[in-house]
Every structure is written in structure tokens, then in C-alpha cells.
Amino acid sequence: MSEPHIKAENLSLHIGKNRILNDISFDLSGNKIIGLLGRNSAGKTTLLSVLAAYHSPTIGTLKMNNRDIFEDASIVEQISFIKEESFEYEYDKAKKWLDDRGSFRANYDADYAAHLVKRFKIPMNKKVYNLSRGMKSALTVTLGLASRCPITIFDEAYLGMDAPAREIFYEEVLKDYMEHPRMIILSTHLISEMDSLFEEVLIIKEGSLLMQKNTEELLTEGVSVTGTTEKVDAWAAGKTILKEQTLGNTKSVMVFGSRTNAERQAAIESGLEFGPIALQDLFIHLTEEGADS
Ligand SMILES: Nc1ncnc2c1ncn2[C@@H]1O[C@H](COP(=O)(O)OP(=O)(O)OP(=O)(O)O)[C@@H](O)[C@H]1O
């Protein structure tokens, strides 16, 4: 298959009277790791389930490699959608569950799955419903990674995993992506742990797309500036201020928006101090109630 290309145009999803996704357009192309960021209830799971063809858009279109995801079953085979499952009635042993599901996936690598099972220490002789929450997550993540689908979606797949298991997950995502490039989309609202994975991010807020950006570009647009209140106010006038703090005559602002190098240089020469803003801080302020990017 050629490199994946997903194009959403004016996509809206209504369920009953609820308008869950509103007029979303984006263009994702190539093998890369993409972060889908949004606060609780922003619509991450819903958007991903539309991408995985679980829901058809009420309005608008969603195409993969120029074909409608809902009209072509062969496309759905290229997509793996991993989310937290309760597995309340899953009486198979973990080994059978994984082997059965892997057998339906064209690129499934059983040796790699065995490697992940070992790293996560999943007790494969236990019945799935009896596994701990963290082990259920590890099992689904193992299926998602070892399936090596051209489009692999993890919807907050770390839920239930403890910190060491999450660390293994992040390491394996990166390592396996480098060896077998594909499009991997990870949704999260725990950004600080995962920010270094994302080459691109989609940020959604209240069912609408706030932005689609290359992560590096996004990070260069956010900057914290500190100096005397007078100088900081003069510099920040007309800019998008995400946050401000004053202590005595010293002021610090977080600003978002593109700047020229010359502008930055002049500000530094006038005595202002520039610092980076972490992706998580940018996310928090950009998605705040009333924030307008
Ligand atoms: N079947 C449904 N019927 C009605 N409303 C729904 C349905 N599914 C989701 N919603 C609503 O749509 C909104 C988005 O839900 P969604 O689960 O996509 O958010 P999320 O960003 O994944 O949230 P979280 O981070 O809390 O998991 C929520 O307000 C939710 O209550």
C-alpha cells in the first residue's frame, strides 16, 4: 500500500440531538506519529471511531487514499483501532484471544507479539476477563503494535497501565515505528509523557478542530517572555497572550503566534528573556474556556 493519506472535509457527527463533531477538516499524510489532543469530552474517541469506520459522518466526507472509508471494506482492514476494553465477558485465555485476533491481520508479527508479552509480563494463561486493568491494556496494545496496520490508532491506550508499563509502550511505539514506518495516531490528554513522540498534532476542543500543526512549528510559536512590566507589555501588545503573571515590577507572559527572528533578537537586546513553553502548557492554555487561538 502507498503511504496513507486521510482527508476529512467538513466532517460533522450528530448522535440524536447531540452535535458531537462539528465541521472538522484535516489532511493527514505519510507515515508519522500523530497526537490527537483534547480535554475530557472534546470528542477524541468519537473522532477516532469515525476514522476507524465505526460511525459514518452525518455531514461531510472522510477519505483514505481518495476512497471513502465507509464504502470500501478493504480500507477498514488497513486500520487498527485500539481502545480500553472492559472484557467483562471475554472468557478466552489471553493467548487464544491474541492469536485469534492476530490471525485476521495481514501484517501480524507473532514473534514481535511474543516479545511484547514478555516485556509487559502478560500472564497469557489467564482468562482475559480475569486480567488486571493494566494487563488488559497491555494485551490490546500488544495486538495493536504487532498487527502493524498501515493506520494504527491508540485511543488513550495507556489507561490502566502503571508508569513502567507506559514507558515500555512509548519505547515500543517509537522503536517499532522506526523499523516499520506507518501512520500511528495516539489520543491523549496526558501530554507531558508523550510529547516527544508526536511529529504532528491535531488539537480538538468541544467537537471542533482547533488546529493541525507540525509539533516543532507549534512549539516555536509558543514562547514565554519575562522582563520589566513596561517592556513586556510593549512587546506583547497585539499578540495572543495565553497567560500572564506579575511579581513586583517583573512580568512574565506566555504568547502564541509566529514571530520573526529579527523581532525576537530586538526583544532580547532590549533586555527581555525568552523561554520555551512545553506542549502540555500550550495545550492547557489553547484549550482553555474562552481561549481563542
Ligand atoms: N453515543 C453517544 N450519544 C450521545 N453523546 C455521546 C455519545 N458518544 C459520545 N457522546 C458525547 O460526545 C462528547 C465527546 O465524547 P468523547 O468520548 O468522544 O470525548 P473524549 O475526548 O474521548 O473524552 P475523554 O478524554 O473524557 O475520554 C461527550 O460529551 C460525550 O458525552
From TrEMBL:
SUPFAM superfamilies, A to Z: P-loop containing nucleoside triphosphate hydrolases
Q: Which InterPro entries match?
A: ABC_transporter-like_ATP-bd, P-loop_NTPase
State one Pfam family annotation.
ABC_tran
ABC transporter domain segment(s) = 6-231
The regions listed as transmembrane in this protein's record are none
List the Gene3D superfamilies hit by this protein, alphabetically: P-loop containing nucleotide triphosphate hydrolases (3.40.50.300)
Question: What does the record give under GO molecular function?
Answer: ATP binding
Which keywords accompany this UniProt record?
A: ATP-binding, Nucleotide-binding
> Known PROSITE patterns for this protein?
ABC_TRANSPORTER_2
Q: Which PANTHER family match?
A: ABC TRANSPORTER, ATP-BINDING PROTEIN, SKFA PEPTIDE EXPORT ATP-BINDING PROTEIN SKFE
- Name under which the protein is recorded: ABC-2 type transport system ATP-binding protein
Species this chain originates from: Alkalicoccobacillus murimartini
